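Bench notes, afternoon.
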Amino acid sequence: MHSRLTEAAAHHREPVSGFVQPRHGHALNLLAGQLYFGTQAGTVKTLLGSCVALVLWHPQRRIGAMCHYLLPCRQRGGGTPDARFGDEAIGLLLQAIGRSGTRPADFQTHLYGGADTMPGRDGPNFNIGERNIAIGCELIDRHGFDLQAVDVGDFVPRTVVLDLHEGSIAVRRGNSSRKTIQRIRPR
């Protein structure tokens, strides 16, 4: 099942950014610059290099959320919020949290990604992964999210899967067949 936004990305149109919604119970592959917030998805999956994913779970209401951002912030101000940027993606999630009648502190929060995808390169290193991690941590603290787990940095990509049926997050690092499964505990 493809959403309208993922179909646009598959057809190589302009980059897409923003919220995506699958049909009820279906799997959703979240691309860079996309967000999910809700109860409809069966699973939400993303692949990260230097990008970062903020993953949220509300155990009582069974609301799951994930954003996948590429860069920490925009260099120049823009009109509409763009989820490719960490500060704007998390801002969009905060708006969705407010509309749902919940608070950031109600969500168990996980932060993943931010790998150094070009280790050992000569010349200037823009530290995209490190900067993405820093903005994520700063905004988690500033807005009072309940941080439960972090797997950031290093030199390996990660695949992250939020399972809304099970209330769990699975993280696969690099090419490893080994998964780390973190059950999201009820409060």
